[in-house]
Automatic annotation (TrEMBL):
GO molecular function annotations of the record: ATP binding; ATP hydrolysis activity
Gene3D superfamilies: P-loop containing nucleotide triphosphate hydrolases
Domain (ABC transporter): residue spans on this chain: 13-236
Annotated Gene Ontology cellular component terms: plasma membrane
Cellular localisation: Cell membrane
Broad class of the protein's primary localization: membrane
Protein name, UniProt field: ABC transporter ATP-binding protein
Its membrane topology: Peripheral membrane protein
Keyword set, alphabetical order: Antibiotic resistance, ATP-binding, Nucleotide-binding, Transport
Alphabetical GO biological process terms: response to antibiotic
Organism: Solicola gregarius
Length: 312
């Protein structure tokens, strides 16, 4: 695999056959991935799947044991030094005695050029607490402050490790609104999270990792339908259960009075059949949720070879 995307020059992030070992532990195992500029990508996986190790290599904090990592076609450390990349990590040194705005001003003095302090405070939703000491800020407010700091160099690539930990519902919504707006302007975002609903709602693309490997890669809808199929519900008086069960791609049919409930691996084919070959109406199609997919894709008895290349 090359690190080039189809037509737009280098990938924002390119991993080619990357392995990372710590002694006898293989944290990342021959992983290849190309992320296009402007994509918002969620990295999901159980504890120890290799998400942080992958992020650390993209940030140049760790070197791969084998393979290569590029950021906009150059070495990660170089990209970080140029201000093209910044990160919001789960924890990270904030000085408790400084106020929020002093913290941002101090960090801004390290970057030339930096975005204006007032602008990043607004963007991170902490302009109203600019004079509060960091030690008095809640966990969610400190996380917003880390976000403000990461915005200072106006990075092309933003890396977020559990970015919304400690934020309340409104804080999360504001945070993701800001991320989505910036992605419209071309900023690439990669985030690791255990909040599956955030990945579902805000990521263009979901990369599932398990034991250092990618086990699924696609949109939230693709990942969900891939692992679990979908459920169709329709009104169909006098439904012929056997006939419906024989539609290709249908796994099960349940007739309840005038309603039918169909579980299908190929929901589109089943829907087409219902609407063209029967008088079915009130058709609803629902996906299994991302948590079902997560459990199916990352459980110990899953044969991940079955998923390789399906969506990647
Ligand atoms: N510095 C290190 N030294 C030794 N082993 C490490 C080191 N860093 C990570 N590992 C191991 O590599 C594997 C992958 O860890 P990693 O932190 O990348 O997973 P993760 O997906 O980020 O997990 P979590 O969701 O718990 O943060 C784990 O088995 C971990 O114990």
């Amino acid at each position: 695999m090359t690190n080039e995307t189809d037509s737009q020059g280098p990938a924002a992030v390119g991993l080619a056959d990357v392995t990372k070992r710590f002694g006898t532990v293989t944290a990342v195992d021959r992983m290849s991935l190309a992320i296009r500029p402007g994509e918002v990508v969620a990295l999901l996986g159980p504890n120890g799947a290799g998400k942080t190790s992958t992020i650390d290599m993209i940030l140049g904090l760790q070197e791969p044991t084998a393979g290569t990592v590029d950021v906009y076609g150059i070495a990660p450390r170089k990209a970080v030094a140029l201000g093209a990349v910044s990160a919001v990590m789960q924890t990270g040194g904030l000085l408790k005695e400084y106020t929020v705005s002093e913290t941002v001003e101090l960090t801004a003095s390290l970057f030339t050029p930096a975005r204006p302090v007032g602008e990043v405070l607004e963007r991170a939703g902490i302009a109203d607490i600019r004079d509060r000491r960091v030690g008095k800020c809640s966990g969610g407010q400190q996380q917003r402050l880390r976000f403000a700091l990461a915005l200072l160099p106006d990075p092309d690539l933003l890396i977020l490790d559990e970015p919304t930990t400690g934020m309340d519902v409104e804080g999360r919504r504001d945070f993701w609104t800001a991320i989505r707006e910036d992605s419209q302007r071309g900023r690439t975002t990669i985030f690791a999270t255990h909040y599956l609903e955030e990945a579902d709602a805000y990521a263009d693309r979901i990369v599932f990792m398990r034991k250092g490997r990618i086990v699924a890669d696609g949109t939230a809808a693709e990942v969900k339908s891939m692992s679990a199929g979908r459920t169709l519900r329709a009104t169909l008086p006098g439904a012929d259960q056997r006939r419906l069960a024989s539609i290709p791609g249908v796994d099960s049919v349940d007739v309840r009075g005038d309603s039918v409930l169909i579980h299908a691996a190929d929901a589109d084919a089943a829907a087409r059949y219902l609407l063209t070959e029967t008088p079915a109406c009130d058709l609803e199609i629902t996906s299994r949720n991302l948590e079902d997919a997560f459990v199916a894709l990352t459980s110990d008895d899953t044969d991940t070879s079955a998923y390789e290349g399906v969506l990647a």
